[in-house]
Amino acid sequence: MANEKSMPASAFLRRRYRAEKRFKAYCIGALGLALLFLVLFFADMISQGYSAFVQTELQIDFAYNEETVDFPQSALADDVYPLVSRAWFRNVPRAVQNNPELMGTTQTIWVTADADIDQFRKGHRDNLPDDRLATLQRLDDQGRVAYKFNSNFFTHGDSKIPTNAGLWSAFVGTLYVMLVTLIISFPIGVMTAIYLQEFAPDNRLTQGIEININNLAAVPSILFGLLGLAIFINFFGVPRSSALAGGLTLSLMTLPVIIISTRAALRAVPQNIRHGALAVGASRWQSVRDHVLPASLPGILTGTIIGIAQAMGETAPLLIIGMIAYIPEAPDGITQAATVLPAQIFTWAGMPDRAYVERTAAAILVLLGLLIFMNSVAVYLRHRFERRW
Amino acid sequence: MAAIAFYLGRRKALLSGTGGVRLHSRPQQYGTYVAVWMAIPALAIGIIAAAASLLHLRVPSAPFVFAFCMAGAAVGLGYALRQVEPSMRARTAIERFIQFLLFGASLISILTTLGIIVSILFESLKFFNQVSLWSFLTGTTWSPVATYREGQQVADSLFGSVPLFAGTFMITLIAMCVAIPVGLLSAIFMAEYAPYKVRTVAKPMLEILAGIPTVVYGFFAAITVSPLVVEAAEAFGLEASYTNALAPGLVMGIMIIPFISSLSDDVINAVPNSLREGAYALGATKSETIKHIILPAAFPGIMAAALLGVSRALGETMIVVMAAGLRANLTANPLEDMTTVTVRIVAALTGDQAFDSTETLSAFALGLVLFVVTLILNLVSIIVIRKFRQNYE
User: Fold this and answer.
1) Residue A61: strand, helix, or coil
2) From A17, A191, A214, residue closest to B285, measured CB to CB
3) Residues 308-347 of A with CB under 8 A from B
4) SS (H, E, C) B347-383
């Protein structure tokens, strides 16, 4: 800019316009970059995870009799049985118990293939031992190898055998934890917001509470885990890794989100409504209960759903209170050890077996799908019931 | 029981009202009044008994406690029923009770903060009994020796936290180098340039980035970004660790973009239009207006947004747990593996350590430092944003 005085005015103007264009391009570029990250991220997750929704299955002839129930491997040819998932063999006695008519018959059934075979067919694994490769080739030629929908992934709990591992117990755990979180944080959050917005005098104490809530919303989540460990588990004796401990911890984290959004919803209700209610003789509580709350309900629900969705993706505090235990069976109650979807993702991400990588990515897709669904419900509620005053 | 009390109170009010005397409040309010009076003593006794049993005091048996609750309920009921008469202001009493209840709820948030402070502080004090504060804050070696039994020697363990802070700040710095320019420029675009339609699409898209769980970012950083960083480094002839600090830093930056952009967007929108129009009237181009008028006016708010972003980066756990190293390493090279405060907290608390071991306690000391630092950052930015809003409102 040193020589701008000596420049002809038109040249200077051109330079300024160029600067303008450049700056706008930077801004668009930044936004584009952020959106590009988003696209890349989703593309990466989908490309890694989609293959876990199907699983290689083999068609075999299985003769059910006393011997094969005790040693299911013996029913198959020596070259075929290493191709079948160990988890399937393990379930043979139970299948017979549930359905005694199977005894003495020979069934042609599709069974889950071993994880190595599955990974090889999906191209995640370069080589197989020659004999297995030959057998696989032979079965394939007979039309006895196919991809089938991986229902284990949704109906089974965690397992050390990758083909048997599923999300069911994590799903049930998430449900319990979210239930506890909702039951605790919703009433307390809404009550706090009503107090601060409708009743509280504007003094030091309420300002302190307000700043405190804003700060709590930004406190690192791992510190809530330390609180849960020291207070809920060590002091109050809540069972470690239980859904109750997780729910209590997460509800404290969700509180500020619910309070802040409820206050915003209450603030959006015009004063006229309150004055109208007071004018016909309602008390302050009556005006809040009968007029302000119903009018702000959509906003409150939206905020609650967003808060719960946030809690659903939270992992760090749950790690601290021990919710990364190996949980093969879904818990029956809130005091039993449980795991949640993000914790299950974390556990699988740490597994050395290649077959868990696609399962981790698939679990991520399921979690993201749930979160996007919840957030769209929130957005829909907001649009459907929002009233402009 | 509450229903019976409600009914009794309402009936008495109605009966006394039939004499032609005007009731002060609605009949059901008398009912609620009586029910509340009955419930409070019973619940209070129950809660005291539960608290006492938690503190391992001597508590009478459950039937006894129950009988006691009932007696309390009866006394409350009797008292409240005697109170009910037409001139009694049941509505005011209920109102006061509800306000009290709401106030109690709002204290929970304060209790949460206190709970965090107390839980961290107590364990930290135990830690500092064993390790001096000075060696904790200035030591450059972090090598806890696993102690599985209580009372084992800890002489060989070193708890110098400098390399952890160095790692934390390095990753935070990388994250902010991504998040601040991208977040701020996108906010400027959306607030000043973007047509309404682009804005309504782009804003929720950016918010998706904020809604992705951190464990998912961690997986992305560890499985996808880290190998890319290693390959890129090899292309330049550099050697990078698979648990380098760059990958988690970059991914954390992506995560923080929406925080910076949505806060800056709000702040930029809060700058009054008269300032913009004044600049345009003097012949300034849009970018000149933004650079010389709007950004300086919005500066405190943008600073506050950046501080909140830093606070979030410091406390972020899952990304670094999954993608950064475990080894405390004091280095300035982001391609080497480094560890952070949060990683060590998780490592100390998820191992098989005795709860009283020094390493477990060190997690709380690290948590204390983390809490204090993020508290300062949060408070500064909250207060700045409040002041900023008040200035332009």
Assistant:
1) strand
2) A17
3) 309-310, 312-316, 319-320, 322, 324, 342-343, 345-346
4) HHHHCCCCCCCHHHHHHHHHHHHHHHHHHHHHHHHHH
Report d(CA A20, CA B291) in Å as an integer: 10
Is the CB of residue A375 less than 8 Å from the CB of residue A209? no
Q: What is the C-alpha to C-alpha distance for residues A343 and B215, in angstroms, rounded to an integer?
A: 8
A252: enclosing H helix or E strand: helix A243-267
- Contact across the interface for B213 and A367, Cβ inside 8 Å: yes
* Residues 295 through 314 of chain A touching chain B, CB cutoff 8 Å: 309-310, 312-314
Low-confidence residues of chain B, pLDDT below 70? 1-28, 31, 49, 51-62, 84-88, 145-157, 352-356, 393
Asked whether the beta carbons of residue A220 and residue B311 sit closer than 8 angstroms, the reply is: yes
- Which whole-number Å values give the CA distances from B232 to B194, B241, B323, in the listed order? 35, 12, 17
ipTM of the complex: 0.87
For residue range B356-375, what is the model confidence (pLDDT) as tens digits?
677 788 888 999 999 999 99
Provide the residue type at B17 as one letter. G
Tokens of B351: 């191992």
Cβ-based neighbours of A365, under 8 Å, separated by 6 or more: A45, A46, A49, A50
A174 has a pLDDT exceeding 80: yes
pLDDT at B172: 94
